[in-house]
């Protein structure tokens, strides 16, 4: 567990740094989910928003577990290195997208739209949101919204070669995205403006690019770990 701690912290930071992307991808959806709360339930808004997000994070964790099983199945083979290279390249692409330097990652997100077209109609069955279980299930469905940042992190977590570790990494990544989306649901405009600030986005994108470079297999990893 001690060896896993730096990776868990990295996943948490990656979720926090991706907050700007989360606002673009999920900010509108978060607002729509908030509006789906009936007036008589508005006093429970924070609890319902937490339930939405816990459902979403649970979806990330389950996806990490399932993809981690695939990573475990190929552990020790050259496919692990290939998986790690692809994950690193996706993370670099994510950093470029966050910084506003390249938007090619949106083409990757398009790959998941077929699944989302199947899942999206299911969300209507749980609206309006009148209870915490409904909010939890709705958030769980929301977790399958196509997202390049989630895809990048999923491949990175799967490349660890351990299903449980992959699930934990996705759990911590999801927790990292929580503050921005909760604040968005509560209409925290100051935080939203802060996360949309170009300087903040460039700094976050740059750090994600560095993280992607660190993820790439090679001798530079031993040098970085030694320092």
Automatic annotation (TrEMBL):
<feature type="domain" description="Urease accessory protein UreH-like transmembrane">
    <location>
        <begin position="11"/>
        <end position="212"/>
    </location>
</feature>
<feature type="transmembrane region" description="Helical">
    <location>
        <begin position="12"/>
        <end position="37"/>
    </location>
</feature>
<dbReference type="Pfam" id="PF13386">
    <property type="entry name" value="DsbD_2"/>
</dbReference>
<keyword id="KW-1133">Transmembrane helix</keyword>
<keyword id="KW-0472">Membrane</keyword>
<feature type="transmembrane region" description="Helical">
    <location>
        <begin position="165"/>
        <end position="188"/>
    </location>
</feature>
<dbReference type="InterPro" id="IPR039447">
    <property type="entry name" value="UreH-like_TM_dom"/>
</dbReference>
<keyword id="KW-0812">Transmembrane</keyword>
<feature type="transmembrane region" description="Helical">
    <location>
        <begin position="57"/>
        <end position="75"/>
    </location>
</feature>
<feature type="transmembrane region" description="Helical">
    <location>
        <begin position="81"/>
        <end position="105"/>
    </location>
</feature>
<protein>
    <submittedName>
        <fullName>Sulfite exporter TauE/SafE family protein</fullName>
    </submittedName>
</protein>
<feature type="transmembrane region" description="Helical">
    <location>
        <begin position="200"/>
        <end position="217"/>
    </location>
</feature>
């Amino acid at each position: 567990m001690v060896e896993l701690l730096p990776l868990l912290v990295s996943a948490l930071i990656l979720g926090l740094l991706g907050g700007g992307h989360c606002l673009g991808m999920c900010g509108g959806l978060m607002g729509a989910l908030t509006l789906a709360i009936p007036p008589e339930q508005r006093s429970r808004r924070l609890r319902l928003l937490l339930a939405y997000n816990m459902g979403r994070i649970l979806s990330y964790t389950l996806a990490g577990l399932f993809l981690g099983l695939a990573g475990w199945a190929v552990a020790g083979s050259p496919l692990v290195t290939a998986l790690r290279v692809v994950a690193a390249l996706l993370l670099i692409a994510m950093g470029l997208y966050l910084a506003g330097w390249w938007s090619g990652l949106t083409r990757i997100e398009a790959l998941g739209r077929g699944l989302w077209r199947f899942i999206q109609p299911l969300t209507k069955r749980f609206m309006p949101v009148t209870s915490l279980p409904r909010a939890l299930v709705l958030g769980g469905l929301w977790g399958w919204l196509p997202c390049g940042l989630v895809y990048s992190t999923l491949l990175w977590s799967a490349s660890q070669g351990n299903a449980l570790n992959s699930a934990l990494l996705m759990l911590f990544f999801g927790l990292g995205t929580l503050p921005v989306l909760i604040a968005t649901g509560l209409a925290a405009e100051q935080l939203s403006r802060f996360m949309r600030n170009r300087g903040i986005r460039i700094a976050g994108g740059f750090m994600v690019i560095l993280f992607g470079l660190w993820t790439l297999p090679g001798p530079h990893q031993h040098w970085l770990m030694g320092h």
